[in-house]
DNA sequence: ACAATAAGTCAGATTTTTTTGACTACCCAA
DNA sequence: TTGGGTAGTCAAAAAAATCTGACTTATTGT
């Protein structure tokens, strides 16, 4: 069942809710992501959940999926401009956790 | 099952995840909250969920529960200092949703 | 004295999210 | 040509979150 959004910040908050999204986002800030790589980096996670999270982050426009057509032909996920715009929010959040 | 926290912002993010917390927080910024009031204000919500959310927000130290011992003896929930510290994060988030 | 309101709790049902394991398809190296 | 890596999908199970309805206790207003 689809729900209406009353609180404006909630949409953004929801974008980063879910068990693995914040961690994925944090890693994406550092460098482009690759699927199996992520699976190894994020201990406790699993294919399906990561696949879902990546797809959602992509649909939300925070990550973009890029097929690298060179040398060892592979796929990368990068932060979009919209994704980068969230970095300061994260930083502020991290500042508060100290 | 309890999970370890790897991403620092995730703890904060988790504090405000859940279907009603962001909305509750937003209303708390405006004025002190009262239970049955909230139940009427947030359409679609229910006792149990609000009770749970309020308890969690309290445990996280973002809200404080106060028994008003005057006139019509009742209970109020107010933002704590820690809760107020989150206001700028919310504002930033809301700025991004435009 | 009576009914309504406030502020919940509790158990069980339902829904949503997350996890598991099996299975694809494609490329690359030995 | 066989084995390993990459990047997934699918169905089903398990776990977590949310909702429902009945019930409680205490305080008010009339």
How would you describe this structure to a colleague?
The structure is a homodimer of 98-residue chains. Chain A has 98 residues and is α+β, with helices and mostly antiparallel strands. Chain A is 55% helix and 12% strand. The first copy, chain A, has a two-stranded antiparallel sheet with strand order 1-2. In chain A, a hairpin with a 5-residue loop joins strand 1 (63-68) and strand 2 (74-79). The first copy, chain A, starts with 7 loop residues before the first helix and ends with a helix. The structure holds a DNA duplex (30 and 30 nucleotides).
Question: What's the gist of this structure?
Answer:
The structure is a homodimer of 98-residue chains. Chain A is α+β, with helices and mostly antiparallel strands and 98 residues long. Helix content of chain A is 55%, strand content 12%.
């Amino acid at each position: 069942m689809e729900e209406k959004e009353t609180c404006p910040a909630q949409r953004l908050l929801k974008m980063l809710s879910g068990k693995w999204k914040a961690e994925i986002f944090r890693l994406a800030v550092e460098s482009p992501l690759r699927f199996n790589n992520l699976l190894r980096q994020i201990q406790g996670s699993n294919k399906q959940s990561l696949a879902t999270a990546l797809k959602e982050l992509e649909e939300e426009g925070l990550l973009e999926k890029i097929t690298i057509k060179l040398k060892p032909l592979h796929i990368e996920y990068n932060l979009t401009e919209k994704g980068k715009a969230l970095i300061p929010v994260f930083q502020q959040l991290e500042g508060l956790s100290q």
